[in-house]
Amino acid sequence: MHLLRKQDLSIYYFLRDTVFGSYEFVNVEDGFPDKDLELPTVTIEALDLTPLQFEMGNRVGRKNRLWAIDVFATNKAQRDEFGYLIIDNLENGICVYNYDENFPPPTPTQLGRLDTFGIHATPVIIFPELQEKMYWRMNISFSTEYHQLTS
């Protein structure tokens, strides 16, 4: 499995198990919902990938990624609570695991870490007459930089 896909899965399981592990009623989905939306739902989507040169003569550079988490809630209080919970947990970074070893989780080996920066939370305002299920929504965008563990 490609390292970028392992990062995708690591963030998904981070949200599902770490952030919302004690909220069994929250649906966590990998990707924007493409079926009937059940509230509350949290989705994660990788947006941009930016390769950066790290040192002269070395083709191995860093790859910064931009991510979007969408919170679809039943009311304003739930939207804000889930949004703040996600932000608090993102500030600690996210472990990246080797899902080639043991999939599905719980105990794959840690490969590295995604450090998070540029976290932005924006309530998405949609008139309830237009779309009731998307009315209480928040978009959280953030960037990551991957750091491999040294052995």
What features would you describe in this structure?
The chain has 151 residues and is of the alpha+beta class. The chain has a single domain, classed as STM4215-like (2-Layer Sandwich). Helices cover 21% and strands 40% of the residues. The protein contains two helices and six strands; from the N terminus they run H-E-E-E-H-E-E-E. A six-stranded mixed sheet has the order 1-2-3-6-5-4. The mean pLDDT is 87.
Cα-atom radius of gyration: 16 Å
DSSP strand count? 6
Strand arrangement, major sheet: 1-2-3-6-5-4
Helix content: 10-25%
Total of helices:
2
- Domains, number: 1
Provide mean pLDDT, rounded.
87
- CATH architecture verdict: 2-Layer Sandwich
Net shape: globular
Succession of helices and strands: HEEEHEEE
How would a crystallographer describe the biggest sheet?
Answer: 6 strands, mixed
Secondary structural class: alpha+beta
Strand content: 35-45%
- The first-to-last residue Cα distance is 21 Å
- pLDDT under 50 segments (min length 5)? none
CATH fold descriptor: STM4215-like
State the name of the first-level CATH class: Alpha Beta
